[in-house]
Structure formats: structure tokens, C-alpha cells
Design a protein that fits this description.
By secondary structure, the protein is α+β, with helices and mostly antiparallel strands. The chain has seven helices and 13 strands. Strands 1, 2, 3, 5, 6, 7, 10 and 11 form an eight-stranded mixed sheet that branches. The chain has a five-stranded mixed sheet with strand order 4-13-12-8-9, with no helix packed on it.
Length: about 270
């Protein structure tokens, strides 16, 4: 399903041609699997509004080239991830169909630059959710099911030396997403739900729903209200990954990874050179 992305807030001090060049640079870095120096260090006036313009520019270009918008991601909802990456507030990015990896399939390290992987709770929506005053109850009532997910993040910024604006511009450092089998959200205690990340059968990370901005449904509500600032909303049929349950680990450090959510199930991905 292709969903048009509406224009968002105008840039601050940086002209449109500069933002277009930054978008070009990030797109080339992803295409050629090359690292670039942090945008924030080269453009001190680059703010969050400008960063979302850059993100949207590249997403719109990919949609124009044939990709389809299938969902959204909330990032930096976990204090462990915020500490790991040196930022202190959430962000969001877009999920396109060419970022989806089937459950149990393989990914190749050669497709990435400096990839890491993290376990998440995915929400599958049955109806639209509109801000600006969306609450967790609105999210839950609009949710068809939840599913275990693995997100592969990959920064085009050299050595993960990112600030908030760097990762926002870089589509919230997203690269691939693996979604497992869905289960009805009814009777699930998302806040207390425990999840684990396994690498080659060994647990290398663990967390609870409460680690995702206090409540993964609240994290999705944050996204709804943030999107409302740009005249956008979540749409029926979209998938939303709500944020990491624990700190990420390098993708190249193992041959197989599994995310397991108690009461929901698990999903795996295999890693090839």
C-alpha cells in the first residue's frame, strides 16, 4: 500500500537547496554503503524540523521510485538505547516495503554499513489513529494485533557519532524490519511483557514493555501526536514498531538472532556475509 506523505514544517535557518543536498548525501551513503561525517557537526543550524524534512525528502523519492509505505517506527524510546547513542528523546522513521525481511529469512552483512539489531513489539493497526491528543487507549482500540519484531538499524553517519538530528534525517537509523506472527492484543499486559534477544541461542539482551517509554502503547501514542504536528496520522493496515526492549547488538556478531516476547511468540533472522 502506498500512502502519500504530506509536506511537513518549513526549515529554519538552512535553505531548501542545502537540505536537498543533505538528502542526496544520505541517499548516496546508503546506496554505496559509505559513511559520512555527522550532519550536525557540519551544519550547526540543522534542527529537528529540518531533519524531518530531509527524512521525508528521501522517503518521498523512494516512493516515487516504486517503494510503498507500510508503516512507521518509533526510535529511542528505551533509556538503554538513548544512552548507547547519546540522545535523550524519541524520534520516528518510516518503514517501506523494501525494508521488510520475511521471518526466518537471511540478510547479508554486505548490504549494510555498521548494522545492529534489537528486539521490538510491533503493532498492526485495524483503523486510523489521529492526534494531537491520542492516548494509549486510542492506540489499543485501533490495534488488530501485536507481533514480535527484529529491527536492523544502520547509521550512515560515521561510527554512530549521531545526535538527534543526525538520526532523524537518516530515517531514524532504520534499515530492515522482520515481523513475526501476530497475536490479538486482547488479554496481553504489554507493560509487563518480557522480551529477549538471542544470538545463536544465547540471551544477549532482555527487557519489558515498561522499558519502551513506560508503555509500548504510549510510545505509539507519542508517535501519533508527533505526526499530528506535521498534519499526518497512522493509517489502518500500517505496522508500527514501538522501540527497542534493550540495547542493540552488532549484527555481525552472530549467525542467527531471535526476538521472543512472552505470551506472543518469536521471530528469527539469519545473517550471512
Amino acid at each position: 500500500m502506498t500512502v502519500p506523505i504530506e509536506p511537513i514544517a518549513p526549515p529554519g535557518a538552512l535553505p531548501h537547496e542545502t537540505l536537498s543536498k543533505i538528502a542526496d548525501e544520505l541517499a548516496a551513503a546508503e546506496r554505496d554503503r559509505m559513511q559520512i561525517q555527522p550532519i550536525s557537526s557540519r551544519h550547526p543550524a540543522f534542527d529537528v524540523a529540518a531533519a524531518y524534512i530531509v527524512q521525508t525528502t528521501n522517503i518521498e523519492r523512494r516512493i516515487a521510485a516504486g517503494a510503498a509505505l507500510v508503516g512507521q517506527k518509533v526510535g529511542l524510546t528505551n533509556r538503554a538505547m538513548q544512552a548507547q547513542l547519546g540522545v535523550n528523546e524519541p524520534d520516528f522513521g518510516r518503514l517501506l516495503d523494501d525494508m521488510q525481511v520475511p521471518a526466518g529469512a537471511e540478510v547479508s552483512l554486505s548490504d549494510f554499513i555498521q548494522p545492529r539489531i534489537e528486539p521490538e513489539i510491533a503493532f498492526i493497526l485495524r483503523r486510523d489513529v489521529v492526534g494531537p491528543r491520542a492516548m494509549r487507549a486510542d492506540v489499543l482500540s485501533a490495534t488488530e494485533a501485536v507481533a514480535p519484531a527484529l529491527e536492523i538499524i544502520d547509521s550512515r553517519i560515521a561510527d554512530w557519532r549521531i545526535t538527534l538530528v543526525d538520526t532523524v534525517a537518516d530515517n531514524a537509523s532504520s534499515a530492515r524490519v522482520v515481523i513475526g506472527a501476530p497475536r490479538s492484543v486482547r488479554d496481553l499486559e504489554l507493560i509487563a511483557m518480557e522480551g529477549r534477544l538471542e544470538r545463536d541461542g544465547e540471551v544477549v539482551g532482555a527487557g519489558r514493555g515498561a522499558d519502551v517509554l513506560g508503555d509500548p502503547a504510549a510510545a505509539v501514542a507519542w508517535l501519533v501526536n508527533k505526526l499530528a504536528e506535521f498534519g499526518q496520522s497512522l493509517k489502518a493496515g500500517e505496522v508500527v514498531i514501538s522501540g527497542a526492549l534493550c540495547a542493540s547488538v552488532p549484527l555481525g556478531s552472530g549467525a542467527a538472532f531471535k526476538a521472543e516476547l512472552d505470551g506472543v511468540g518469536s521471530v528469527t533472522v539469519r545473517v550471512m556475509p
